[in-house]
Amino acid sequence: MDKGKGVMGSNARRWAVDFSDNSTSPSSRDVPDPPAFSRASIDQDDSTLSRQKKDAESNWKAQKAWEVAQAPFKN
């Protein structure tokens, strides 16, 4: 047996995956939302949440910038 060659040989494939979607089943977008679910409230929460994340990130960056700037004086 040659070194580096598997049991099945170098040309044989062990796995093959077909990613094409030939199914006739409905996609997740075609499924109706559950009762009492509102996409509008989710969109508003996302915008508020993203704004809060941006504010928190900018505050964190400013704090880290001050720490880096003052590091030489702390030694």
What are the defining features of this structure?
75 residues; mainly alpha; flat
Describe the 3D structure.
The protein has 75 residues and is mainly α. The protein has a domain at 47-74. Helix content is 48%, strand content 0%. The protein contains one helix and no strands. It has one helix at 39-74. The longest helix has 36 residues, at 39-74. The protein is flat. The relative contact order is 0.05. The model has no long low-confidence stretch (mean pLDDT 76).
Quick overview of this protein structure:
It contains one helix and no strands. The radius of gyration is 28 Å and the shape is flat.
Helix and strand layout, with pairings?
Blueprint: H1 39-74
Main location: endoplasmic reticulum
InterPro entries: TMEM85/Emc4
Region (Disordered): 1-75
Strand content: under 5%
- Name the helicity range: 40-55%
Q: Which of globular, elongated, flat, extended, rod-shaped describes the shape? A: flat
What do the pLDDT scores average to? Answer: 76
**Poorly predicted spans:** none
N-C termini distance:
64 Å
Number of strands: 0
H/E series, N to C? H
Number of helices: 1
Structural class: mainly alpha
Tell me about the largest β-sheet: none
Give the radius of gyration.
28 Å
